[in-house]
Recover the amino acids of this structure.
């Protein structure tokens, strides 16, 4: 399985930027963009749920993902969670992440890292806590330590190269 890389983050940013889709990197991919020292095999996008956000199906189709008709429909109607595992890396499009009430609130707290819109580390942590999956519970102590480090040190910097 491929590891999520800077090049892939750039492809996502460029494809969605051209279509004016408002989104945030969330999950471990978002934390990595903030500088979290880890790897992931997928990208998680928290997408604003608007009539225009259905454009994401055209964006992902243009980024080497082979979408089924059902996936296109799920993306266009804003299904809460859509898994795309048929591209160069796994991509999860999330319209309603656990632990975050509204996109607008997350957007107001977000951080721009090298032109990547990224959820604030507190929102990433809150989402992982609310999801309560084993792998999320295992990473929470490190995410909390990273959050504390961010607060006490320099501005966030991307860990992707």
């Amino acid at each position: 399985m491929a590891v999520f890389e800077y090049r892939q983050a750039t492809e996502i940013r460029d494809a969605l930027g051209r279509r004016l889709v408002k989104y945030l990197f969330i999950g471990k991919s978002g934390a990595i963009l903030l500088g979290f020292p880890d790897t992931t095999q997928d990208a998680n996008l928290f997408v604003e749920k608007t009539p225009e956000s259905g454009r994401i199906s055209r964006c992902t189709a243009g980024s080497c993902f082979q979408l089924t008709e059902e996936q296109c429909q799920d993306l266009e109607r804003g299904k809460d969670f859509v898994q795309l595992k048929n591209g160069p890396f796994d991509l999860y499009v999330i319209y309603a992440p656990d632990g975050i009430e509204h996109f607008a609130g997350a957007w107001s707290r977000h951080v721009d890292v090298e032109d990547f819109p990224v959820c604030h580390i507190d929102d990433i942590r809150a989402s992982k806590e609310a999801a309560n999956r084993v792998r999320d519970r295992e990473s929470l102590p490190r995410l909390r330590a990273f959050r504390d480090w961010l607060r006490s040190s320099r501005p966030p910097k991307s860990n992707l190269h």
Summary: The domain at 6-152 is CATH 3.30.460.40 (Beta Polymerase; domain 2).
